[in-house]
Amino acid sequence: MAYTRGNLAVKEKTATRGQNPRYRETTKVVTRRSPLPIREKLLYMVTILFCVGIMGGLLWQNSQLYDIKRQAFNLNTEIQNINVQVKELSIQKEKLEERIPEEAAKLGYVEPVDEGVHVQVPNSTTTENQASDVATVR
């Protein structure tokens, strides 16, 4: 053993200075997280379920609104189509009304001279509600 600066209890480190050691001792700090308590887990789960429920409700409400708007749009287009058909049919009705006198003349009908139409009702078919035997229509 060599004398090192007046102390004989010190080991010599000459053999390990120049060489790499075969293994290197490393320490790794491992921190373990403590598990969450059951109450805290339940709180998180209830919070998440609440948020999912609110989002689901909003989606359902928006889908209902979309359906209502779509139905209103379809009804508006149907109303426009029906209005077009009504205009076409009213034009066709006017054309047919203009042809009535011509067709009646062809068939031999004539316009009455006096106003109103007199209808004779026989006594055997009268009911209690009829007031007279002759009805006048104007």
Automatic annotation (TrEMBL):
Keywords: Coiled coil, Membrane, Transmembrane, Transmembrane helix. Residues 1-20 are annotated as: Disordered. Residues 79-106 form a coiled coil. The chain crosses the membrane at residues 42-60. It comes from the Bacteria. This is Cell division protein FtsL. It comes from Paenibacillus motobuensis.
